[in-house]
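Researcher: Batch entry, complex prediction.
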Amino acid sequence: MEKMTLIKKGAEAELYRITWMGRDSVLKRRIKKVYRNPDLDLYIRTTRTSLEAKLLSEARRLGVPTPIVYSIDLKNTEIIMSFIPGVPLKKIIPNMERKTLHETFSLVGSLVGRLHKGGIVHGDLTTSNMILKDGVLFLIDFGLGDHTFDLEARGVDIHLMRRALESSHHEVSKWAYDGFISGYEKIMGDEIKDILRRVNEIRRRGRYVEGGR
Amino acid sequence: MRKLYVMGIESTAHTFGCGIVSSNGEILSNLRSEYIPSSGGIHPREASQHHASKASTTIKQSLNEAALRLNELDAVAISLGPGLGPCLRTGATVARAIALMIKKPLIPVNHCVAHIEIGRLTTKEDDPLVAYVSGGNTIVSAYSDGRYRVFGETLDIALGNCLDAFARSLGLGHPGVPKLEALAERGKNFIPLPYVVKGQDVSYSGLLTMATRKIPESNPSDLSMSLLEVAYGMLAEVVERALAHTEKPSLLLTGGVARSPRLQRILKAVCDEHSARFHVVPPDLAGDNGAMIAWTGYLAFKEGISVPVESSYIRQRWRLDEVEVPWRR
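Model: Structure tokens for the complex:
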């Protein structure tokens, strides 16, 4: 590893652009939090690093584009993966026409459907974690994900997607969410009914939503 | 221009509060009477009976302290929700009666918005990211395009609820959080407990269940320390994510649990890492109070917002992000 350029300092990790074995790569390092109990901190960073590396590879096998994991270092809580030279969805949504928006989120929905069908939940579906490159949509950041076929976990995944759209893209959230659901339904088929019922339940469970429990 | 005076009435949960503010942001009085359950958690009917019995003296004292008479008020603001039905109804009845009596407008105020606005007023921070933590709410919010948007919240119980319930199981009594923190000071060994962050949201119910289950087998100091570490750590993580995502220049900590020194230290550290300013609402305005309702009522009144008495329904589940806040535009 010769040159390391910091490309992003997120809340949880630092991302560096590096050349690894001659390949254009990203090093993701989960950083120590001084405000957290050291035992808890190490536990969180280690489990998330290990889980993320596994889920990235497994998602790929399910046909969901993700970065390729090259190397993992649990001691330093680092992952090295391929660099995706695209743009985060978050940045391009404001300039999207409604039709494109619907199509794009239908694609997002079908990718999430593939994950769920394959027994994976992402755990942090926001538009910062979706990268578009030449018409191919990549999902990144699987650190909060899980291996599960559980209805509740799937429901939370969809709930978080909806909430992320409402808070960050409120002016177009309905269109985007409709697109998402149409793509998700294509993959999930009839299963979607139970999941959407659970999504509404989760929403009502939150503090203070009109409509009662 | 003549100074305007607004009275605010708060009765969403434990506290019956009456505060008076003037249009230049002065808090002229802020009286409170808190219902303390003899055992267990809040009982809505008992709390509302407490409010009904204390309303009159609290309001009189509030007027005395502000050196004002009822007919010198320009508007009456009422916290219409979110909160417990019986408690909300008691406060709303009182506020409606006063508004009718003095023939002045009744201003509907959302309790969560009020916690944010009183923080903005007292810290002079114009556009902060807000962490609002109390016995009933755990919300990470920021203003965008006419409303306070919710970036993260609890998926089940509130942070204060989790800590209070655990403190009661340990037999610590009221108020739970300070006693829990004192006990945790002596904690040495970290006991693993469920740390549940889902996207930008947190979940405290599993944590409470597990911590309570471990009481018989654990050292109380170690267990309290671990519970606080996990509970505050989860909040710190979602706050940090929201700071990184929204790129707001500062963080405002508000709500009853904002008084916790341990939580303040943790969130200050989060802000330092992101070069954001850190502010906490003053302790006497952290918990539920009438002054925050009065001030938010004034902001709304200035925009021409009021509600006819006959349609001033309470709203037990009135979400923060449903409320238009035109004074921020």
